[in-house]
Write a structure and sequence with these properties.
CATH class of the largest domain: Mainly Alpha
Order of helices and strands: HHHHHHHEEEEEEEHHEEHHHH
Mean pLDDT: 95
Number of helices: 13
Distance between the termini: 45 Å
CATH architecture of the largest domain: Up-down Bundle
Number of strands: 9
Strand order of the largest sheet: 2-3-7-6
CATH topology of the largest domain: Butyryl-CoA Dehydrogenase, subunit A, domain 3
Low-confidence stretches: 390-399
Length: 399
């Protein structure tokens, strides 16, 4: 991926915003269990940061996805994972399908205010019995007169207690699980919605995460995104950008933690020398930095191949899944190792490494668990059980 002057300027703008407008308040928001999404997103919308890849005719910048990756990487300088996640829901999880497939009227009513930061949005896919198994959702939207009537529930919904609308995946017919689903825009002030249940999480504490119940919620049928029955496909497309965004937003946070650990262990003394002077410690830190740089290279490669348009969707899904898998595992490895080097101080709740240890654990679960990523990768490689070609490779013959 070529990093141009424009990429660098975008990165600097976003990083400065994080340092000035987010990081000074993170401790307060973590304690409160919620971030002021409307306030923060309105400021970001004023700077043009919420529609980087969205169409210019709807208020976006119309740039390719490499700029969104740079945006996500800069957000990684936030001293918690919760706020970048909430922002990512707005830019890369709840709005891509609307931007691609929504009607002009739907984009004007819902996408444009989201780009301006005037509306906060959620993506409502997961359910208590259907997390990574998206095809297993039970929420239904049945047609009645000119409306959809929605019944069911959604679980683990980021921004869920304060969003103005949600992009909701529902069943709209009795057909096959991959062909009977639709994405519908649901205003969150609609009658019959209960979202009072804010979930208490291990990490990502500054992000409000809700359980949402739909009891005969009526929305106009014009709120359908694209075609009825194609919701599963649209959501799978949204997942690719979600996974790339999530991977990119992990880079700088890990690099910052590594540097802070170097600084801390250099001045922390034990047995007559600094902790950093132990060969195991500085060798291990070198290994961790190498892993993060390898992750960064994979993300940049995937982004380059994605924006080139020269590769199949299956190939891009494989690479995006590799990025998602790798960032989750590298994050767990890095935060666990660094916490050990901080000793007792690393076990303190307010410590940045401890917070990252809690926050990044979600990366291997949310947006498709590690096991789902491995399945996607195996499918693209043609090595899933029962799906391999009948022909087996012949062993080379002796000369």
């Amino acid at each position: 991926m070529q990093i141009t002057h424009e990429h660098q300027e975008l990165y600097r703008t976003v990083k400065k915003f994080v340092e000035d407008e987010i990081n000074p308040h993170v401790d307060e928001w973590e304690a409160a269990g919620i971030w002021p999404a409307h306030e923060v997103l309105r400021k970001m919308g004023t700077l043009g940061l919420l529609g980087i890849t969205k169409p210019t005719e709807h208020g976006g910048l119309g740039l390719d996805y490499s700029f969104e990756v740079m945006f996500a990487q800069a957000l990684g300088n936030c001293t918690c994972g919760a706020v970048p996640m909430g922002i990512g829901v707005q830019t890369d999880m709840a709005t891509p399908a609307l931007a691609r497939f929504g009607s002009k009227e739907l984009k004007k009513e819902y996408l444009e205010p989201a780009i301006r930061g005037e509306m906060v949005v959620s993506i409502a896919v997961s359910e208590a019995g259907a997390g990574s198994d998206v095809a297993g959702i039970k929420t239904w939207a049945r047609k009645e007169d000119g409306d959809y009537v929605i019944n069911g529930s959604k679980m683990w919904i980021t921004n869920g207690t304060q969003s103005d609308w949600a992009c909701v995946l529902v069943n709209t017919s009795e057909g096959k699980p991959h062909q009977n689903k639709s994405l519908i825009i649901v205003p969150m002030d609609a009658k019959g919605i209960d979202r009072k249940t804010k979930l208490d999480k291990l990490g990502m504490r500054a992000s409000d995460t809700a359980m949402i119940f739909f009891d005969n919620v009526r929305v106009p049928r014009r709120n359908l995104i694209g075609q009825e029955g194609l919701g599963f496909m649209y959501q799978m497309m949204q997942f690719q950008e979600e996974r790339l965004f999530g991977a990119a937003s992990g880079i700088d946070g890990l690099l910052n933690l590594i540097q802070e650990t170097i600084d801390y262990t250099a001045q922390r003394q034990a047995f007559g020398q600094s902790i950093l002077d132990n060969q195991y410690v500085h060798f291990r830190i070198a290994e961790l930095r190498t892993e993060v740089e390898a992750l960064k290279a994979l993300i940049y490669q995937t982004t380059e191949e994605y924006i080139s348009g020269k590769h199949t969707p299956e190939h891009i899904a494989m690479l995006a899944s590799m990025c998602k898998l790798k960032v989750g595992r590298v994050s767990r490895e890095v935060t666990d190792a660094l916490l050990q080097f901080w000793g007792g101080q690393g076990f303190m709740w307010e410590n940045k490494v401890a917070r990252a240890y809690r926050d990044t654990r979600l990366v291997s679960i949310g947006g498709g668990a590690d096991e789902i990523m491995l399945g996607i990768i195996c499918k693209a490689m043609g090595i899933l059980p029962g799906k391999r070609k009948n022909e087996q490779r012949k062993a080379p013959q002796a000369a």
